[in-house]
Amino acid sequence: MNEVEKLSEEMLRTAFELDASDIHLIPRKSDTLIEFRIHDHLYEYDLMAKPIADRLISYYKFRAGMDIGERRRPQSGSYDIVIHEHKINLRFSTLPTPYDESLVIRLLPQIWNTRLSDLSIFSESTAQLSQLLNFENGLILFSGPTGSGKTTTMYTMLHSAKRRYNCRIVTLEDPIEKLNENFIQMEINEKADLTYQTGFKAILRHDPDIIMVGEIRDLETAKIAVRAALTGHLVLSTVHATNAVLTIHRLIELGLSKFDLKETLVGVVAQRLVTLHCPRCGNVCEENCPNRLKMKRRRTAIFEILTGLPLLDALQDKKPSLGRYKRLEDYYRQISALGYLDPQRLAPGADHVPS
Fold first, then answer.
1. Is residue 353 part of a domain?
2. From residue 42, how far is each of 33, 78, 105, 296, 332 by CA, in Å?
3. pLDDT for 79-125, tens place per residue?
4. Structural domain tally of the chain?
5. Span 282-322, pLDDT tens digits
6. How far apart are CA 164 and CA 116, in angstroms?
7. What is the distance, to the nearest Å, from the Cα of residue 237 to the centroid of all Cα atoms in its chain?
8. How far is residue 98 CA from its own chain's centroid?
9. How deeply is 343 buried, as exposed, middle or buried, from its count of CB atoms within 10 A (0-12, 13-18, 19+)?
10. What's the CA gap between 269 and 304, in Å, rounded?
11. pTM for this entry
12. 252 lies in which domain range?
């Protein structure tokens, strides 16, 4: 194993052990900054000499099937590794900059053991998510920024549906985030003319019960999702929007009619991830702490779930009744009042990697 391979292995192993979701290699005038994104914060890991960083990036590009000689255009690629007996899928993205290429590596563990009840410390939210799976057909949408856990929530709901109903689940993703033998998974491949449109048409002929689409990006994809829901399938997908009500507005902006949404939409879920802080012990709970179960996962999701009468209000341009509908802001206030938000938490930004 040469120097670059050892450097790569050490960096990936450290990132995995620190529960980092992304590694950033940022080229600068005289060096390359390496940062880890851990629980939605960027931490400085190392400053690397440019010649070594260039060799490291070339090594990753080669392993990921990217063009080593092309540095003027964005590229993407992937490959799998095993760290501490855990299979990890690595996704690579490069961008050209004035100081050479920038590289981001996303770490996607492939082992799946999350249950619906593990997603949030608020049991009312996970119960609502479970109830959405009782619909035999319709459209369920998830919104939130990148890294807010939308895909994790969708996969967890699909696992729950598979265990509960033993149904046929087909996914169409760009790219596939987590391989699962219990689902039929398709990956977008525009070179082979496998687009969202052609993939959807093929899926509808494959006798699915539940269809998961990675993202509704345009009117064409939105119309196909609506048509699948109208023909008796339960469809799960994501939309870029700030909250649940604005998700509906986003679909209308794309060109969907309110009539189609009223006929198909059964739930809209907006979510965020929150880093937990034990009000009694701080970041690490003591053996006898009553909060240990809640602190088992350092981060929890908060959900704004629009369904039932509040959803109907939103589709009729009425303000949903807050008595039946809790917004993200309400959960932030509640989790803060319970003491689970760190009072000394830094604003998002760069810092050193925690030991």
1. no
2. 12, 22, 13, 22, 22
3. 999 999 888 999 999 999 999 999 999 998 876 668 899 999 899 99
4. 2
5. 767 777 787 776 666 678 899 999 999 999 999 998 888 76
6. 12
7. 12
8. 30
9. exposed
10. 6
11. 0.81
12. 116-337
